[in-house]
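Summary of Year 1 activities. Much of the first year was spent building the evaluation harness for sequence design. The harness presents a backbone, in tokenized form, and records the residue chosen at every position. We chose the following record to illustrate the format because it has been used consistently in internal testing since the harness was completed.
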């Protein structure tokens, strides 16, 4: 009997854990286009109740939402999640936005980004003036990925600020303020005078990042841009590069290295700082976003405006991608949408795609680094952008939904 009771308790605990996890993973805030179906991946027993109607309807979320959960007008709404239709478990805010038009670009661009402080990317021993080895950072609590923003109440915005401030301490303890996971922390370090007669912390830091990719689209109604379809990741820490500001510029193509199995290809380019497009204000898992200040540097000649497709409008089958594989020359190439992950709101792998155009395969071997952000058109609508390549097969990769990029732009 005791054994049965224990098994029953374990089973109930597992069920409760599954429900708690499912509810926790559901977002508290959702953005949808007007007319877009609202979908949640959940389990039996969790029901959704709209609270913006006098006679709220209840639908079984695990079976997908019916037309009662397609909003016909823009605005803010609220829905409640109930357990078995009776126990309230979560509120979700729904922000319904107007559908929009964009101009897919496909131009090769350069990205320059600057941190709000200095990013710690490594640590090393310091040889002191006495020829002994020291680790001044030990026991300070500072780790790789932390952002140093202040030393002795002085704002640190770049590596020169840090070097100058540390050297002025004359060997005294300094107070360092740093940020980790949006939480500000404080510690103290005594810098070591090195054999070069400079005071050092033993920390390797950086204050900027740069890369080459593809401009996805320009949105005329807001004069905004989106690029890459994924974020700029810091090569040292592996995390999304936290920015204070940045700049999108044109890039000149130098060469193309074709992709092969287990050896991804690459577009090699050089950033042209004299041809600025605009300011970057956001670096996210879904792309790099900003405001266009010099639209003439995008070169919109022969480009046209397209509606952004709803996911329900995207089909498996033929589509076209726009990219620049010769300086100043964009072209359109045939691809195939093989799979569509309609309920995916969690990463930039929304569609599985395959390059089919022999012209593109002859030039690149498939999807290569630098093509991230290349816009995809299907049935006269913008549906998304290339984001990833499968290392085992360079002709195949992933693309992000266009609506995910637009929604990320709208989040403040």
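For this record, the design step produced the sequence shown next.
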């Amino acid at each position: 009997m005791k054994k049965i009771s224990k098994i029953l308790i374990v089973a109930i605990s597992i069920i409760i854990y599954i429900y708690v996890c499912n509810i926790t993973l559901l977002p508290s805030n959702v953005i949808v286009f007007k007319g877009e179906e609202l979908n949640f991946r959940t389990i039996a027993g969790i029901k959704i109740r709209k609270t913006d109607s006098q006679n709220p309807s209840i639908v079984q979320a695990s079976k997908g939402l019916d037309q009662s959960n397609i909003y016909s007008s823009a605005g803010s709404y609220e829905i409640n999640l109930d357990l078995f239709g009776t126990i309230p478990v979560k509120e979700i805010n729904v922000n319904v936005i107007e559908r929009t038009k964009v101009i897919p670009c496909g131009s090769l661009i350069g990205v320059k980004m600057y941190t709000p402080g200095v990013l710690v990317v490594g640590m090393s021993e310091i040889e002191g003036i006495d020829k002994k080895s020291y680790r001044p950072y030990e026991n300070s609590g500072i780790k790789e990925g932390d952002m140093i923003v202040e030393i002795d109440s002085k704002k640190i915005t770049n590596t020169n600020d840090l070097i100058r401030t540390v050297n002025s301490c004359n060997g005294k303890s300094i107070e360092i303020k740093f940020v980790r996971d949006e939480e500000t922390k404080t510690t103290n370090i005594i810098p070591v005078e090195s054999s070069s007669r400079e005071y050092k912390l033993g920390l390797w830091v950086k204050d900027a990042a740069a890369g080459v990719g593809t401009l996805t689209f320009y949105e005329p109604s807001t004069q905004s841009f989106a690029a890459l379809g994924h974020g700029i990741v810091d090569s040292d820490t592996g995390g999304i590069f936290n920015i204070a500001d940045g700049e999108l510029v044109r890039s000149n193509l130098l060469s193309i290295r074709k992709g092969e199995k287990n050896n991804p290809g690459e577009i090699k380019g050089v950033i042209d700082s004299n041809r600025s497009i605009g300011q970057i204000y956001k670096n996210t898992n879904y792309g790099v976003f900003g405001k266009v200040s010099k639209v003439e540097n995008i070169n919109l000649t022969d480009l046209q405006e397209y509606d952004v497709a709803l996911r329900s409008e995207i089909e498996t089958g033929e589509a076209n991608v726009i990219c620049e594989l010769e300086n100043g020359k964009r072209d359109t190439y045939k691809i195939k949408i093989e799979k569509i992950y309609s309920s995916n709101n969690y990463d930039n792998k929304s569609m599985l795609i395959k390059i089919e155009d022999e012209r593109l395969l002859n030039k690149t071997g498939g999807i290569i680094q630098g093509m991230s952000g290349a816009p995809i058109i299907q049935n006269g609508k913008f549906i998304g952008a290339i984001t990833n390549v499968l290392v085992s097969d360079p002709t195949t990769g992933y693309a992000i939904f266009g609506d995910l990029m637009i929604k990320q732009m709208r989040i403040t």
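The helical segments are 2-25, 159-167, 358-364, 402-410. Quantitative recovery figures across the full test set are reported in Table 2.
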